[in-house]
Write a structure and sequence with these properties.
CATH topology: Rossmann fold
Radius of gyration: 18 Å
Distance between the termini: 52 Å
Strand content: 5-15%
CATH architecture: 3-Layer(aba) Sandwich
CATH superfamily: NAD(P)-binding Rossmann-like Domain
CATH class: Alpha Beta
Order of helices and strands: EHEHEHEHEHEEHEHHE
């Protein structure tokens, strides 16, 4: 059996961890990328114990650092690793009033969510195209469809990911590269990102509105492998994305802003 290799950024938690678990069960070798090497090593050990025929390579990287994406790509080349499936999952989120949030933290969010994703996509898309095959899954968000006050920079970065991926999907297809590029747009998902003191306020969302990280990851993988440009997990989320087409951006911002201000708990009140 010939194993394909998947590289997953943000592999140590949440949706990223579920991507790894699902792909390992499907026989993929894995390149696990995140900042915390100890968590990656533990995950690699667990997955290789469960699935004896796969191998996991751990690469610790902070994609918020300058040239981190380029260094990651060069590391895979030096290790002789061929990436067949790239999942750009790493992302940062900060909630709160734009002027009150730390500027450096917001700049780092832009770097991880947009610049690193773009660089990794460029580098690996070229490598895949040279071989005539490959898959790239960029994790956007349902937030990509709406300007969101109190989460404005995050939503804007995800709007970039969605637009960039839609355009690149068509470009790679029209050029006959054999490379599929897809965007995953999950709604509220049960991960630590929903309650992380480091990212500002906490959005109070009922459990009934949450999806599991496992189901989101599986839908994303299946959609990308099937060649789809966009996947929005969950009927309610798909309906929400469709409804956004009926309103102006300013009206959407007004609606979203009212919802977020009403349901966001300040980090200072925890």
């Amino acid at each position: 059996m010939t194993h394909k290799t998947a590289l997953v950024t943000g592999a140590s938690d949440g949706i990223g961890l579920e991507f790894c678990t699902i792909l390992a069960a499907r026989g993929y070798h894995l390149i696990l990328v995140a900042r915390r090497k100890d968590k990656l090593n533990a995950l690699a050990k667990q997955l290789m114990s469960q699935h004896k025929t796969i191998r996991c390579t751990v690469i610790s990287a902070d994609l918020g650092k300058p040239q981190a994406a380029q260094k990651l790509f060069q590391t895979t080349l030096k290790k002789g690793l061929q990436v067949d499936f790239l999942i750009n999952n790493a992302g940062l989120l900060h909630n709160g009033y734009f002027t009150a949030l730390d500027l450096q933290a917001q700049e780092q969010m832009i770097t991880v969510n947009m610049l690193a994703l773009t660089a990794l996509t460029h580098l690996f898309a070229n490598d895949m195209a040279s071989r005539g095959a490959g898959h790239i899954l960029n994790v956007a968000s349902l937030a990509a469809w709406t300007p969101i006050p109190n989460q404005n920079v995050y939503a804007a970065t995800k709007a970039y990911v969605l637009s960039f991926t839609q355009a690149l999907h068509n470009e790679m297809q029209a050029a006959g590269t054999g490379v599929i590029v897809s965007a995953l747009c999950p709604g509220y998902t049960a991960t630590k990102m929903m309650d992380n003191p480091d990212q500002g306020g906490k959005l109070m969302i009922p459990d009934t509105m949450m999806q599991s990280a496992e189901s989101v990851a599986e839908l994303g993988i299946d959609a990308c492998l099937a060649g789809r440009a966009i996947v929005i997990p969950g009927f309610a989320n798909r309906l929400t994305a469709w409804i956004t087409r009926l309103f102006s951006k300013m009206m959407l911002a007004k609606i979203a802003g009212s919802f977020y201000r009403k349901n966001m708990q300040s980090s200072s009140t925890k």
